[in-house]
Amino acid sequence: MTKKWVYLFEEGNEGMRNLLGGKGAGLAEMTNAGLPVPSGFTITTEACNAYFDAGKQFPEGMWDQVLAAMKKVEDQTGNKFGDPSNPLLVSCRSGARASMPGMMNTVLNIGLNFDTIVGLAEPVDDDRFAWDAYRRLIQMFGNIVKGVSRHKFEAILDEYKAKTEGGKDTDLTTDMLKDVVKDFKALYKKELGEDFPNDPYQQLRQAIAAVFDSWFGAPAVTYRNTEGLPHDWGTGVNVQTVVFGNMGWDSGSGVAFTRNPATGEKQIYGEYLLNAQGEDVVAGIRTPHKIAEMKDELPEAYEQFLEICDLLERHYRDVQDVEFTIERGKLWMLQTRRGERTAAAAVRIAMDMVKEGLITKEEALMRVTPAQVDQFLHPRFDPKAILKAKEDGNLLAVGLNASPGAATGIAIFDADTAGKWGRPEFPVEEAGAQLRALIGEERAKQLGSEAFQEIKDERGNTRALKIKVILVRPETNPDDVHGMVAAQGILTQHGGMTSHAAVVARGWGKPCVAGCEAIKIDLAARKFSVNGREIREGAYISINGATGEVFEGSIATIRPRFEEEHDLVTLLGWADEVRKLGVWTNADNPQDAARARAFGAEGIGLCRTEHMFFDQEGEEISRRENVVKMIMAEDEEERQKYLDRLLPFQRKDFEGIFRAMDGCPVIIRLIDPPMHEFLPPREELIEEVTRLRCNNENPDELAEKEKMLQVVKSLWETNPMMGLRGCRAGIMYKGLTEMQTRAIIEAACNVAQEGVDVHPEIMIPLTSHINELHEERKKLEAVAREVVAEKGVDVKYKFGTMIEVPRAAITADEIAKYADFFSFGTNDLTQMTYGISRDDAEGKFLLDYVDRKILPNNPFEVLDRDGVGVLMKMCVEKGRATKPDLEVGICGEHGGDHASIEYCHLLGLNYVSCSPFRVPPARLSAAQAALLYEYGRKQ
Amino acid sequence: MTKKWVYLFEEGNEGMRNLLGGKGAGLAEMTNAGLPVPSGFTITTEACNAYFDAGKQFPEGMWDQVLAAMKKVEDQTGNKFGDPSNPLLVSCRSGARASMPGMMNTVLNIGLNFDTIVGLAEPVDDDRFAWDAYRRLIQMFGNIVKGVSRHKFEAILDEYKAKTEGGKDTDLTTDMLKDVVKDFKALYKKELGEDFPNDPYQQLRQAIAAVFDSWFGAPAVTYRNTEGLPHDWGTGVNVQTVVFGNMGWDSGSGVAFTRNPATGEKQIYGEYLLNAQGEDVVAGIRTPHKIAEMKDELPEAYEQFLEICDLLERHYRDVQDVEFTIERGKLWMLQTRRGERTAAAAVRIAMDMVKEGLITKEEALMRVTPAQVDQFLHPRFDPKAILKAKEDGNLLAVGLNASPGAATGIAIFDADTAGKWGRPEFPVEEAGAQLRALIGEERAKQLGSEAFQEIKDERGNTRALKIKVILVRPETNPDDVHGMVAAQGILTQHGGMTSHAAVVARGWGKPCVAGCEAIKIDLAARKFSVNGREIREGAYISINGATGEVFEGSIATIRPRFEEEHDLVTLLGWADEVRKLGVWTNADNPQDAARARAFGAEGIGLCRTEHMFFDQEGEEISRRENVVKMIMAEDEEERQKYLDRLLPFQRKDFEGIFRAMDGCPVIIRLIDPPMHEFLPPREELIEEVTRLRCNNENPDELAEKEKMLQVVKSLWETNPMMGLRGCRAGIMYKGLTEMQTRAIIEAACNVAQEGVDVHPEIMIPLTSHINELHEERKKLEAVAREVVAEKGVDVKYKFGTMIEVPRAAITADEIAKYADFFSFGTNDLTQMTYGISRDDAEGKFLLDYVDRKILPNNPFEVLDRDGVGVLMKMCVEKGRATKPDLEVGICGEHGGDHASIEYCHLLGLNYVSCSPFRVPPARLSAAQAALLYEYGRKQ
User: Fold this and answer.
1) pLDDT classification of B282: cutoffs 50, 70, 90
2) Do A716 and B715 meet the contact criterion of CB atoms below 8 Å apart?
3) Are B682 and A683 a contacting pair at CB < 8 A?
4) pLDDT-derived band at B188, boundaries 50, 70, 90
């Protein structure tokens, strides 16, 4: 017996999503819920995979099962496929496990030919409609199944539309459409060297194969790569009776959300077009009407639609995104799926549904993603800057507020350029030259640093720069995805809230202004005009996705006020109730510490001390100068002199942080980077010394630089990451970590005397052998005891270590003997476990690896469970075997990543620590992990 | 009940070595074997540890047990401790678990004072002897127990000796000795502010404590660190009745080996002095007589001694190193221990004893250390160069051939300077400056590269330079150990084959010429004179430890011929019969491959291909130039052009290697280092470009260098070890590894057609994720299949990977799916697991770490079982779980290290691979591991 490859809608249900795809499962679920769904069937995702496995051949038995299902559909509808007198027409649509908006291809009106066209026209007595349906089939089939450029079809159509008065497609006459069909067929033959297939089953067969093929088409692959989705899911194919929204002015098509996807407001939200097929609404070719207007135009269908929406929400217990068609007054539901929504909407909907009794608090927590919480905190335009821009007359136009958020950047008019400019991360020192090469010396100078988005590293330093671009298009389609990924935001002239640009941008949380008809784009001239002004490619614009406003120039942004986001604050409060993991923060100064506490941080998991060695504003003495002298000291006495000078600064820094974290633990990491990071770069010195020698003008400066170069050379390391740094510096530079420990404990005693509840934890970095930790701890604990005795204040402190070297994880049972706590430094741990130097690799091969799927994702963003994770597990087990109550946390960048937090929960860590702005999403991630694994709840 | 801290000799045996120390266990064993051993007892090593644990206090009950044991000894000897009429005198000696020649301290004649001296003199009617014994007690006690400089005592003694005719200590009169005692006591009081203790029990108590204390004295600690012995063994203390070798001319003391320790010849070998205490023989103050002479001087004692030596060898089934004393014609055995021997002697003795039926073949294999096998292969002076040196009149003198081997270096006259000059490893570029700073511009220029010993890295490149020094001393003592360690060889004016210098040097396998009385050393003037020539400090000399010859200047060395060392070849043949591990070699060219095969290598475990990218002698086309152009190619087509040019060279290289390894597997590693290693260094280019810009003279050269600099900058990496190298280069540089694979398989097919039995195994380096290996293997296997098809030769090949990244070991179950073999690259694996960059660390902190005992040893020399070893174990288990017959080997430097080979045996690896000269010792190491763990035999 061959496998079952084909399921009638009535044979499936929502639970069969993996087999039938989201769309197929949804249609089945709707059908069985008694909704008006046109008859049809689904070919399984397994069939898709089998098709590719067999080298693009339908698996055995599939086509026979399709034919049998077609027979059933004929019975249900009373129509017959290919029958001139009473023709059945079907659509062919993709539908994968997860929604991939616009990525997959759809062919409508399969079954039409010169014979059946008569049968289609006859019952409605509308030749024009039938010919329009036929030209659509040829157009879609030619483009999607056969790959003929859509623009070539559109050019023909535009030619005919230009001859009409209205200029719209509905203005075309029957004769014109007949000519269009003729021209389309000629184009088809010219492009492909074959006739458009007349046989309905040929049409169907080729359409099904095309849907399969599109699974590995470039746009789908790009989308899955961007979203991190696997390539082996496959897509289902849905074959369904066509209903016509274009059977006259009592017909129409629409898409809608059962609640507002931008704000979450409880109000049906969508668009429709009369006398149009569904594709017309989404494609953005005609700007559609708001759904509320249907109440007047088609009141009965509208009432029925409201009822169905309500039914759907109660059935699915979530907001639905539906497609419908009204054929001569009768409402048909074509699709329903979970409605994508903005961050604001997600939170509001979750809260509302709890109030409405539709879902529980725990379910609400699962309805919002940590990424959405993160979006809440993204910069928005400063209202004062907006006012100023308006006063200055820089508001160009207002479009649809399709996806909220503030974006500024250089206007770019095609996806390739946007991808080329906006994608790469340039090293800081190269970015200027790259920009000049792209936009010319003068423009680059004008833009200056505004041209760039800063990419920060773990230490908060700018690691790289990206050029900020805004993609400006008449409309977008799946071919543009790579440019959309690279852009800061998207601006389209046409298309509604459910257009491709709007839906994709919302899914990604990227700002988008859609349907901004006021701007007139001239692609050939690479510019747009608005109110007599011209914005050329390379000009700087700003778009506000929350209001739809488009400005010329750059507008300053501010962070939103977290505490005013009451729904979010409440939701995260619920998260705190269920999560098992603590959420701490990485903060090096009192300001960051205070901000993180406001975001809900319960401690500092990583306070780096090396920033404190650089000059601070408003201080008369140069810290850095003292640090340089300390490093260059010729004996221990001299070194101690400069260390003594640095001590009061460090103490002051720690006092501020302790005050900000009153009542919370504060883990302070002793100096970590190699000493040469505090000196000028070797290459720079070589250049200077060579020049000075050459010029032979300034012998004093030369001598000084030569001396510095000598020191820098002696400190220079081939692989500094694995060199003299971390605890090794503490062991080799006498007095250094003693000074830091003294500063920490003196500061703790001082603020304790002020009444602050202080919990210092001193973290020794880069332990690879137990003896290193033992040696440092012994030495530093003596200092701590001495200070506590001197001050006479009973301050409790802990000593622990970072686990960032594989060997430390492997020997954790030993290391736990001398550590009160462990903190995973997963950045370095990943570097060493993977043998990948992050700074070098990202530009040279790592991103390429991810693109080419050699790596499932960037291991510096998402914790590598199979490699690094195994070491972490071993470490936790061995460490707790020695010391059952060992405090274990994570302070690497992964501490703020959702999937990584889930793994930390599974490992039983005490807390995750992340940068302040990642604290709120981390709270939700931790709660979701607890819900998934502790309460056995999985949405 | 308190612990038993004290054992009478009759209570112990050889098996109690750990508790009683080697010397104590030996005395007990000898006593119970019925040998003439002076009565005594041993205080246990546990007592020593308890003493230190208690803060240098005797543990509870110990002293009482000592008193009780003294009582027993009094009963046995009939003498009484402190009794003026019939005094018992005892010695107090250290004795740790392992022999530590000369490291531990001995005090003789305890129990003497103004009262008992009478009783000592009376029975032999020899005042002089008694006063000499007393001055020895004060001298040893003052020096060893109280730390007064030995030179101060010797200065007094020399003063009196100078007044005699003979000038020897035996020429001192009784009155003179009484004055010496007076002066010694005055010195004692002056130096220490207290009187020399009169109470015998006070003397004993302090002497015992001093032996304990010496366990953590600097020389003992240095020795243990050098030998890698643990510090927690503790030493035993042996208290034993003193017998006097200096009771007149019918008395004497001696030391002997039961066979010749230098050659292994079956002939008693040793030295003695009449009318002398044992310390005089070892100390090298008087040059002793050869043992054979005793036959004439003391025939009875000599006969008895021969019998006892024979008894001892049969009892212990090994060569013994004994100390004896003849007191007025009666022979006493004071000590026996396993005789240290040279490499040549070890092999000969083992072979002879098998022939004699004393030991089995397996035992013979355990009697030779791999380090001794290694010594066999050390360079020796080229006989032609020796002849030439003699013709040129550069043979200065001939001393005792105390420890074989050839050494050349700068003559240095004290241990501190030898340590300071000879110890550090200087980076190549700094070494010249360091040498100039030490010996002056001119001398350094004269010496040139001869001043240096090259320290090679894994790739055979010179990693660092050490200054070669020869330590020249009148005699050596434990204080000189640090200088001896640093020196290439040791030359002494005084002392015999059993002198401190000779024994220590033999133990280390370091060349030594001892007792070279012809050279007259003037320490103050830092020079020695010989035959009217003067050799000043800083001059270059050569010593031949096998012949005792000392030359001025440098003499060329050659490697010995392995195949002519018949005993060794036979022994290693036995090793091959028992070992489970294969022994392969790391070789990059046919010459090395052939040499390694002659040494017994059974395959090539690592053939590096990067050397093949550098220019080779006698080739007209520059390989390197093509490599540079290949790297700088602007597109793939251009790159392929240069790759095509490189292919024939690589193919030729592989053909040669395959021919040399006919019938053996050859693992070839594809290109591993980052591409920038083939280009000029960045710093050099920066300097050149800056200078060219400054001079503004040569625009063409500037343009060229600027272009090169741009490329070098774009390839530059912060941490190249973890950058774009290994398989990553293969993945990112299209065509590179394809070319290498084609060259390998073409070469294999070509030589197979010649009739060579060829087994190529292609190794993909630096895998961290299974997909990397999968991607490369897929690509390269296609190339291999293509070549085999083209050539029509049925060559079998394997594809495998290096395991050198921690993640590869952790995910070995996955990786084994696409690997036919694994090879541990433990150099990089250690770097990444430890987070230590070897190149950077050794000079900056690693050697310091080892000195300070923060690390037990250098993990790049001895495999770190607790860290790296855990990953290896995991890797083998996971890899073989996927593929039970997976071939697993090691090609890192550890593959030639004894302890690491043992661990590889325990892991069940298939083979170890090491550099050619390490193959013979590795064969023995592998056999010993098999014997220890497979046959349950442990010597």
Assistant:
1) low
2) no
3) yes
4) very high
Please state, in angstroms and rounded to a whole number, the distance separating the CA atoms of residues A432 and A417: 18
With a pLDDT cut of 90, the percent of chain A lying above it is 62
Are the C-beta atoms of A186 and A226 separated by less than 8 Å?
no
C-alpha B764/C-alpha B776 separation (Å) is 8
DSSP B854: S
Q: Torsion over CA of A204, A205, A209 and A211, rounded to 10 degrees?
A: 10
Tens of pLDDT along A106-165? 888 999 998 899 888 887 778 888 998 999 999 999 998 888 988 899 999 999 988 988
Specify the residue for token string 């020895």. Answer: B136
Among all chains, which residue has been given the structure tokens 């135009």? A297
Residue in A with minimal Cα distance to B870: A810
Residue A275: band (very low, low, confident or very high) from pLDDT cuts 50, 70, 90: confident
pLDDT band of A938, cuts 50, 70, 90: very low
Query: Which phi and psi (to 5°) does residue B586 adopt?
Result: -100, 115
Give residue for tokens 């590889």: B904
- Does the distance separating the beta carbons of A834 and B866 come in below 8 Å? no
Active-site entry in B92, B512, B749, B891: B891
Residue pLDDT, tens place only, A178-211 = 999 999 999 999 999 999 999 999 999 999 998 9
Phi and psi at residue B392, to the nearest 5°: -80, 0
Total length of chain A? 939
Q: What is the pLDDT of residue A759?
A: 98
Are residues B552 and B535 in contact, defined by beta-carbon separation less than 8 angstroms? yes
B844 touches chain A (CB under 8 A): yes
Question: A557-558 and A380-381: which strand pairing?
Answer: antiparallel
**Residue of B430, B690, B713, B831 to mutate for A, most A C-beta atoms under 10 A:** B690
Compare CB distances from A686 to B686, B831, B839 and report the shortest one's residue: B686
- Predicted TM-score (pTM) of this structure: 0.78
User: What pLDDT, in 10s, does the model give residues A331-345?
Assistant: 999 888 888 888 889
- 3-state SS, residue A890: strand
Q: Nearest chain A Cα to B835, which residue?
A: A722
Residue B546 half-sphere exposure toward CB, CA atoms < 13 A: 17
Residues 6+ apart with CB under 8 A from A778: none
The answer to whether A832 contacts chain B (CB < 8 Å) is yes
Cα dihedral A482/A483/A487/A489 (nearest 10): -100
Q: Is B411 helix (H, G, I), strand (E, B) or coil?
A: strand
The length of chain B in residues reads: 939
Question: Which of A616-630, A773-787, A827-841, B266-280 is most confident?
Answer: A773-787
Is B717 part of the contact surface with chain A (CB cutoff 8 Å)? yes
Mean of the per-residue pLDDT values for chain A? Answer: 90
What pLDDT, in 10s, does the model give residues A374-410? 888 877 888 889 889 999 999 999 988 888 889 999 9
Smallest Cβ–Cβ distance between A867 and the set B811, B831, B835 belongs to B811
Residue type, B338: R
Give the sign of the dihedral formed by CA B1, CA B3, CA B8, CA B11: positive
Compute CA B115 distance to the chain's CA centroid, rounded to the nearest angstrom.
Answer: 49
Instruction: Enumerate the residues of chain B whose CB falls inside 8 A of the CB of residue A853.
Output: 771
CA distance B387 to chain A (A): 45
| Contact assessment for residue B925 and residue B900, using Cβ atoms and an 8 Å cutoff | no
Percent of chain B with pLDDT over 90: 62
CA–CA distance, A807 with A768 (Å, rounded to integer): 5
Residue B406 has which token pair?
Answer: 């050839």
Q: Does B810 touch chain A (CB under 8 A)?
A: yes
Residues 6+ apart with CB under 8 A from A443: A538
* pLDDT exceeds 70 at position B581: yes
CB–CB of A565/A376 below 8 Å?
A: yes
